[in-house]
Write a structure and sequence with these properties.
The chain is α/β, with parallel strands linked by helices. It has one domain: Rossmann fold. It has seven helices and eight strands. The strands form two sheets. It has a six-stranded parallel beta sheet with strand order 2-1-5-6-7-8, with helices on both faces. A two-stranded antiparallel ribbon has the order 3-4. Strand 7, helix 6 and strand 8 form a beta-alpha-beta unit. This is Esterase OVCA2. Its EC number is 3.1.1.1.
Amino acid sequence: GAMLEEERPLRLLALHGYRQSGRRFHQRTGALRKALRGRAELVAFDAPHLVPGGGEEDDGDGGDPPRGWWFSRPGAFEAAEAAEEPAGLDEALRAVEEALAELGPFDGLLGFSQGAALAAMVCALRARGDPRFPVAFAVLVAGFVSRSPAHGRFYREPIALPTLHVVGEADAVIAAPLSMELARSFVEPVVLTHPGGHFVPVGAPQKKAYLDFLGRFRAGQGE
């Protein structure tokens, strides 16, 4: 019908990985953006904290300085580290809140690696009714549960927000069991495994899974 033609694509706020930037993540998700064209668009932005000591690779163009969402110890981050004094998460949540308000409206989140871990925390707050984060769902690629005791509050109860968890069986950065553990923190998570490593996969089976999951939502539902 005529109504369906008018429907805007879903808009997803994209949270990049540790040592990346919004621009770098935008470049790296070209295949994904093409796969989702007409159905969803991605808007990446920068994490608030600069990471000391250069980028994940020197891309030769002087690139953006590498950024992170929080640190497990001063100026550094390890997903496996049970940080006693993690730093920077409040600023990261504020950055997401501001991006949702200033760049929105958004329907959901797409997070990669540390960005997926942060997106899961946002989902937890949203599921408990936090009005700062008007999102209806999230796609979490290579996510993990923060090991920091200070972050335990996010996982105390199952997170009742729809999520798609993308898990790389050969991921050497965030091992598959860590991403599976995060999926178990959610109510009725959809889990998509792929044989690859630490990247956002866009092969035919993954493209179908993304579109199937996104097909459950309509633009404007989260508002």
